[in-house]
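Study this one:
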Amino acid sequence: MRVLCAGDEFISPEMLAGAVRKQVDGAEIVTHASRWPSEPWEQGDEIAEFAGDADEIAGLARGADLLVTHLAPVTERVLAAAEGLRAIAVCRGGPVNVNADAAARRGVPVLNLPERNARAVAEFAVGILIAGQRNIARSHAAMREGRWSGELYRYDQAGPEIAGRTVGIVGLGQVGTRVASLLRPFGVRLLACDPYVDPDVATERGAELISLDALCERSHVVTLHARLTGETRQLIGAAALGRMRDGAYLVNTARGALVDEPALIAALRSGHLSGAALDTYAREPLPADSPLLTMEQVLTVSHLAGASRDVAERAARRIGAQVGRFLRGEIPRSGAEAPGG
């Protein structure tokens, strides 16, 4: 059996190959590494968020039985080259670097890993909320510039504690549920907006399920954990931002396109929002001339929420297990999803 393991600088091809070898005896493994994240991923018309050259991947995929990857482009051209491909295994929650329609037409299932970084993203969201609101990031930046940021102790500069505040979670899925679990010990009131969650389930998770309008009106902090779809694109636009209470704070560790960025910038400039902690943006990398980079009340991070060593190790291990299950016939040939986070 020939297996192409296409990794990168986060989940290396060697990590993928090691996981595959534990499941497939005597496999012939071909490896390939892209330069992501040292070089940013690309966006295309056919697939999104991929790293690497499709022609190069197509050449390596000829004769492959399995293609195991993180971000490699799996396009129509790649699939045409890999005529005998039995399955594509992608160690991401959403395998958007795969042309799913083309794979389905060829009867090639796509195995993926829902929830693979949910814990990491949830921890990160809470971390940047605290680092942003309590001026940890601002003080660190000032100290690096040789300035003692004592002015941040002034009443008009000091940030609020989390305890006793109302936090609105947009998207109460795997990440949002973990955020709720992490925040409850702080003594917050939790609200949630998610059309796919039953109110009783939300209550079990410690949150009151309400509409987006009501969530915006009642929350001191709004944190985004929804998937990006046609329905959720720019979900947080001028109307939603306008409904937020004066001095509200926005956290986004999901997808930048959930937010209307010009409307957010206007809300920040006017002082209607007290600040924001952002890990994702409408365009990535964030353009150097973006006003978000010069706003002191905005914490900007370079899409790092899912970047933990645990995520990389867990993803390689679990995608290897997925491959093993598939080869043993434990996963339907029409496609699969991995259990667990």
